[in-house]
């Protein structure tokens, strides 16, 4: 009986979705038209030069890469392997110790394989991750990544970010055509609207300039250099508080754990054979003070009672250990000013809420797209052709990057607690929908994992969850109040997802082939 009931709901959900989809297409058409007119207006935002330079530019390298984090170091490897001379300038070459970029989704691992960098997750005690476990109000459900059709090696990886970054850097530095130098880039050198290189300060304090036909800025989420290359609209919806739990067994081995807590989600995942990363989300930009003990008190009194009982003691021990770090969670849609001679990559270019651990996957996917484009262009001094390729890159990356970005923003809102009845229902519907298994869990998790990040599949599952939530409310005894809540679930779902997709750029996300830059791929040069 229970099964028939569930399937009845699902059938209703699918039929409802077809109707919603038709309406959605109409709405999309209007929004696409609006985003088109916004695209046309982007030129007026172009900024004035950062630094004027007179005379000829002697080119030291084919490409300058600013920053050797995940994006910069992977990019340097990739371009150098294609024969480019790459000059990487990194502010601090010592091993980073951060709470970011510690779970690489399987889709990101596939990109590492495409780039020939999969060995960089070896010898760092990285842990395989096969899916997620979700916890809500004492209930739990397991969601596996759909990995059946991939090689047995393909899975997520949890690791220390610094160890992974050092492996990428070492690998890049071992290539004869890479020059990896410690230094801080202070400005971009511009001449007649074209970026010709960078000005930087070496470790010894010397001010130097470096020139190349292409400068790729990968200076991360706090980027100082992005301002002249894009229109940065940074939002900080929340902060993560990071702890490390030692020698603790997670309830679901080799899985990420997401607790749908109040006020917002708590994450756990393995980062080595004896360490588990815990990230506690705190909405807003202010967190309790660590120094005066407010943070420890908050973690023990508000957070600890909500976490799975199996890891309660390890969590409290980690709080008592005192190694607590915080980091703002930023999101920023990509809004580049196409600039000859320069490109942004990684978090400098585009950010999303880290709830879904999508940042490294987007960065690696972008690198694959750029590498494939630039392979057609042997001479980077061919400025018009290079410019066309860079504009193509902005369009070609959109379907994958925007799907991962939109999912992260939408899921963060759905997974956070809310006093609003419709939002509460949506949150419960999401948990129950994912618990159904089959396509209802594999579809959404294939988006999240980067294994199949497609915009239409995202919209389909998002509204299927909403319609499932409406069905749960209306059956078996609909009432006017329940109809009202049902309607509010749909409007609330639309209110969550459409603004994020609009900011991502609906036209490039859903119809990239209608954007002229999609076809800007100059014929191969000699
Ligand atoms: C709390 C949190 C948790 C996250 N968790 C995950 C996760 O689990 N999985 C995931 O995929 N993503 C995660 N992310 C996102 C992920 O960390 C980023 O997408 C990824 O690190 C971006 O790499 P990047 O190379 O662009 O930036 P970074 O890794 O930050 O590298 C930037 C580099 O540039 C250098 N630099 C900066 N300025 C200069 C300068 N002026 N000159 C020279 N060098 C400079 C820095 O020293 C640094 O090495 C998380 C983000 C946050 C905030």
From TrEMBL:
UniProt pathway annotation: Terpene metabolism; lanosterol biosynthesis; lanosterol from farnesyl diphosphate: step 2/3
GO BP, sorted A to Z: response to ethylene; response to water deprivation; sterol biosynthetic process
GO MF entry, a single one: squalene monooxygenase activity
Q: Give the primary localization class.
A: membrane
Record localization: Membrane
Instruction: Name any cofactors this protein relies on.
Output: FAD
**Keywords of this protein's UniProt record, alphabetized?**
FAD, Flavoprotein, Membrane, Oxidoreductase, Transmembrane, Transmembrane helix
EC id: 1.14.14.17
Tell me how this protein sits in the membrane: Multi-pass membrane protein
Q: Which SUPFAM superfamilies match?
A: FAD/NAD(P)-binding domain
* Role this protein plays: Catalyzes the stereospecific oxidation of squalene to (S)-2,3-epoxysqualene, and is considered to be a rate-limiting enzyme in steroid biosynthesis.
Quote the protein name from its UniProt record. Answer: Squalene monooxygenase
UniProt lineage? Eukaryota, Viridiplantae, Streptophyta, Embryophyta, Tracheophyta
């Amino acid at each position: 009986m229970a099964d028939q009931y569930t399937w009845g709901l699902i059938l209703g959900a699918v039929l409802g979705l077809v109707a919603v989809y038709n309406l959605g297409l109409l709405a999309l058409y209007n929004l696409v038209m609006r985003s088109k007119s916004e695209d046309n207006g982007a030129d007026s935002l172009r900024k004035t030069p950062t630094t004027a330079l007179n005379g000829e530019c002697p080119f030291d390298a084919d490409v300058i890469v600013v920053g050797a984090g995940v994006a910069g170091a992977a990019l340097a490897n990739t371009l150098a392997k294609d024969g480019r001379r790459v000059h990487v300038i990194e502010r601090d070459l010592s091993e980073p110790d951060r709470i970011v970029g510690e779970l690489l989704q399987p889709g990101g691992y596939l990109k590492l394989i495409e780039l020939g960098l999969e060995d960089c997750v070896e010898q760092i005690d990285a842990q395989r991750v096969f899916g997620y476990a979700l916890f809500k109000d004492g209930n739990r459900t397991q969601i596996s990544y759909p990995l059946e059709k991939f090689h047995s090696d393909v899975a997520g990886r949890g690791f220390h970010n610094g160890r992974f970054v050092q492996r990428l850097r070492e690998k890049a530095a071992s290539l004869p055509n890479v020059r990896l130098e410690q230094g801080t880039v202070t400005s971009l050198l511009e001449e007649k609207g074209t970026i010709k290189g960078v000005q930087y300060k070496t470790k010894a304090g010397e001010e130097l300039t470096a020139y190349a036909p292409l400068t790729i800025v990968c200076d991360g989420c706090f980027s100082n250099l992005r301002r002249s290359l894009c229109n940065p609209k940074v939002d900080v919806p929340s902060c993560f508080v990071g702890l490390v739990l030692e020698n603790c067994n997670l309830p679901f081995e080799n899985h990420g754990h997401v607790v749908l807590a109040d006020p917002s989600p708590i994450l756990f995942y393995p980062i080595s054979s004896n360490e588990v990363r815990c990230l506690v989300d705190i909405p807003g930009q202010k967190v309790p003070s660590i120094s005066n003990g407010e943070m420890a008190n908050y973690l023990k009194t508000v957070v600890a009672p909500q976490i799975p009982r199996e890891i309660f003691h390890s969590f409290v021990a980690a709080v008592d250990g005192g190694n607590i770090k915080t980091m703002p969670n930023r999101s920023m849609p990509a809004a580049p000013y196409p600039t000859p001679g320069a490109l942004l990559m990684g978090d400098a270019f585009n950010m999303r809420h880290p709830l879904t651990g999508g940042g490294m996957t987007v960065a690696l996917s972008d690198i694959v797209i750029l590498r494939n484009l630039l392979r057609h262009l042997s001479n980077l001094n061919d400025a018009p052709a290079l410019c066309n390729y860079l504009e193509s890159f902005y369009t070609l990356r959109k379907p994958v990057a925007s799907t991962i970005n939109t999912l992260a923003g939408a899921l963060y809102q759905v997974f956070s607690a809310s006093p609003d009845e419709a939002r509460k229902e949506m949150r419960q519907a999401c948990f129950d929908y994912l618990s159904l298994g089959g396509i209802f869990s594999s579809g959404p998790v294939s988006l999240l994992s980067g294994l199949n990040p497609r915009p239409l599949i995202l919209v389909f599952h998002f509204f299927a969850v909403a319609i499932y939530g409406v069905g749960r409310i209306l059956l078996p005894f609909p009432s006017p109040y329940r109809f009202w809540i049902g309607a509010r679930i749909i409007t609330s779902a639309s209110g969550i997802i459409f603004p994020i997709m609009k900011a991502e750029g609906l036209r490039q996300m859903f119809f990239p082939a209608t954007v002229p830059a999609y076809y800007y791929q100059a014929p191969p040069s000699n």
